[in-house]
Design a protein that fits this description.
Among the domains are: 94 residues, conserved putative lor/sdh protein from methanococcus maripaludis s2 fold, CATH 2.40.420; 83 residues, Efflux pump adaptor protein, beta barrel domain (Elongation Factor Tu (Ef-tu), domain 3); 71 residues, Helix hairpin bin (Helix Hairpins, Orthogonal Bundle). A six-stranded antiparallel beta barrel has the order 3-10-13-12-11-14. A four-stranded antiparallel β-sheet has the order 2-15-20-19. With 398 residues, it is of the alpha+beta class.
């Protein structure tokens, strides 16, 4: 009995310790798991904050300022030939020879090249033979029909035979007309074996050589033989910002200079306008015709066109460092109300060195990125560090 009581006393503390461990260990595990989850959540939040901070590009912005009004509106223009045309072959064949090369001054109707077209020549011979055949049949019909008209008077032939010969005469006359038209068409095609200049001008491109296979028509690759330009007058196209469109009309006087001819001024005037504002660029297309009797103005070159007019709109001025020169043209990065970048196309005017005149594309209230990196893209999120006025832009723009 005493032994049993002693064993019970020994087992009781051991059972209490085991129960305590069963309670403590799960609690420790649960606490450790909770602590680990909380730590991971803090790390994720910190990582998100770091990522957001890296995504946001810090920038400084500048507000455009008004420059000084000037009666001289200078805009870039592009020169084009007054008339320009590709010259194609109108018959199938091979180039026999060519007579002019690039830079040659030609007159209207001058022979440029000749084409060997044996198929056209043979078709013309066949058509002429068929015309002779039709004329022979017509000659016989003209003899036969009157004879039957005489025989019907003596009742030697029937009325049906007379009618048949009359119809045969009419058919043979139609056959002769058809054969003559076929001969005329092929004779016209044969004249196309000689390639001639459509107007007075200069050969700017030669895209053929002796022995080249050419095809009739103006579609496909390699069928253009020459390109000719009429350069005695050049067309100069200028895109005028919408703000100045109401002041430029046909007859407005202007002057023009080109880089290749320094210290030279060419008088010009507005010949016509598009009478419509382009919805994408918000500009008016203006054309000026400039006499070029000596041919020193070359089509395709850029020109600076100066319009002398009282400007009702004063242009804006920005530091040159704000301009991004992209493939689509000059642009600036504007920060919108959502702190996102909007790339805007701008039309530039006078370049004053540190500053540049902006004729279209920005407003005085716009926040323009001061020194935009090349990686600036539409929709990029930014944070504005500070806003500063264009540094003495107005003074430098005057």
């Amino acid at each position: 009995m005493n032994q049993t009581q002693d064993l019970s006393k020994e087992k009781s503390p051991r059972s209490g310790k085991r129960l305590l461990w069963f309670l403590v260990i799960p609690a420790l595990l649960a606490g450790s798991a909770f602590y680990g989850m909380e730590t991971r959540q803090k790390q994720v939040q910190q990582l998100q904050k770091t990522t957001q901070a890296l995504d946001v590009q810090p920038v400084r912005v500048i507000h455009p300022e008004r420059g000084k009004s000037s009666p001289d509106l200078s805009l870039p223009g592009m020169m084009q030939a007054f008339s320009q045309s590709p010259v194609y072959a109108r018959v199938d064949g091979y180039v026999r020879t060519w007579y002019v090369d690039i830079g040659a001054h030609v007159t209207k109707g001058q022979l440029l090249a000749e084409i060997d077209a044996p198929e056209v020549d043979q078709q013309l011979n066949q058509a002429r033979a068929m015309l002779d055949q039709a004329q022979t049949s017509l000659t016989l019909a003209k003899v036969t029909a009157p004879r039957y008209q005489e025989l019907i008077k003596t009742n030697s032939v029937s009325q049906q035979e007379v009618d048949q010969n009359n119809q045969n005469l009419a058919a043979q006359e139609a056959n002769v007309q058809a054969a003559a038209a076929a001969v005329g068409r092929l004779e016209q095609m044969q004249t196309y074996e000689k390639i001639v200049a459509p107007f007075d001008g200069v050969i700017t491109e030669r895209k053929t050589d002796s022995g080249d296979l050419v095809n009739a028509g103006n579609a496909g690759v390699g069928r253009e033989l020459f390109r000719i330009s009429q350069n005695n007058v050049v067309r100069v196209f200028v895109t005028v910002p919408e703000e100045f469109s109401s002041q430029i009309k046909p007859g407005t006087k202007a002057s023009m200079d080109v880089i290749s001819l320094p210290n030279r001024k060419f008088a010009a005037s507005v010949t016509r306008t598009a009478d419509s504002i382009d919805i994408t660029s918000r500009t008016l297309t203006v054309e000026l015709d400039v006499p070029n009797p000596s041919g020193e103005l070359l089509p395709g070159a850029y020109a600076n066109v100066h319009f002398q007019l009282p400007l009702n709109v004063v242009s804006l001025v920005l530091p040159s460092s704000t301009i991004l020169f992209q493939t689509d043209g000059p642009q600036v990065g504007n920060v919108n109300s959502q702190s996102q970048i909007e790339l805007r196309k701008v039309t530039l005017g006078h370049d004053f060195g540190d500053t540049i005149e902006v004729l279209a594309g920005v407003q005085p209230a716009d926040a323009v990125v001061a020194n935009p990196p090349d990686s600036l893209t539409n929709g990029m999120r930014v944070v504005v560090e500070s806003a500063a006025p264009a540094q003495n832009a107005t003074q430098k723009g005057s």
